[in-house]
Amino acid sequence: MKETAAASRLAALSALLLEIYRLAREESLERFHQTALECLRPLLPFDKAWWGRAAQAEDGPHEHSSFLFGLPDDYVADWSSIRHEDRTVPLVHAEPGTAVVVDMQGGDATAGMRWLGQRHDIGELLCVINTDGVTQLSDHLALYRRPGAPPFTGDERQWLSCLMPHLASAVSLNQIRTLQALRLTLEGPEQRLALAVCDGVGVLQSTEPAFVELLLAEWPDWAGPSLPAMVKPTGYDGDRLRIDARQVNDLFLLTARYRCAMEQLTGRENAVARLFGQGRTYKEIARELGMSPHTVRHHLRAIYTKLGISGKAGIAHLLHQLPPAS
């Protein structure tokens, strides 16, 4: 019977992790913490929670971001007023990654902790931190139960200890996806972004389907798992396809997109196209750019040929798709 219960709990943990990572990829930045905690509750029951990111300073942790679940907005300010009395802080920082249990209204609680627990109807808390080795920022999660609720068990401490690195990773993934989605909305529908991760020799570790589609459209005979020969882990700058790279430890985050049609133009052609699309006449463009009207006409013919368009309306349409100037 014990083995059956353990197997069932392990299956529940596996299902939870899959759901957390799905939420990280698909949920909005504003909703991710809420929905992730709602998924966690059936496996590890709690009444309230505080999930945040902080930097450690000489006088204790300084919050960079906080999400409160079932707690009022003034909870962080209340905690800040007694944080020098909070036994939880030295305990979790003594063993990052190991969850600790603290009774906020127990006999060994400080006066400040008892006050905070009574003010916000909190009995025990279960807390763990995960510290980023590069930024030294700590993701922390504290789960609270009301006075009189069943105490947190040793198994529950282990569950949260095991889960926290995944939760911290999911937060980062969710933030990256949100930022990339924001870039997508700014760049327009034709500037679709696709992501992948590769190692230092160009072997793909994970990819979005759209990333594979972009590579196959450019190199139909490509089969993977390594990047095409002319694409380096540090990026690629081709006539039609651009791949930007950002190194994360020993891996590279790749962001691929098709170039905007306007990027195919020379600097002079681009200037002519922008002014013509804004409604300027040949003479006005010639005067502003210091060239003859005949040269303006020559540039426009080249623009039409390169972009496969004709007339001022076609240029104006392409200009409208460009991202706003920063």
What does this structure look like?
- The model has no long low-confidence stretch (mean pLDDT 83).
- By secondary structure, the chain is of the alpha+beta class.
- The longest helix has 34 residues, at 154-187.
- A 5-stranded antiparallel β-sheet has the order 2-1-5-4-3, with helices on both faces.
- Helices cover 45% and strands 21% of the residues.
- Strand 1 (48-57) and strand 2 (60-69) form a beta hairpin.
- It is built from 11 helices and 10 strands.
- The protein starts with a helix and ends in a 5-residue tail after the last helix.
- The protein has 3 domains: 2-177, Transcription factor LuxR-like, autoinducer-binding domain (Beta-Lactamase, 2-Layer Sandwich); 189-259, Profilin-like; 262-321, Arc Repressor Mutant, subunit A (Orthogonal Bundle).
- Helix 1 runs antiparallel to helix 2 and helix 1 packs parallel to helix 6 (154-187).
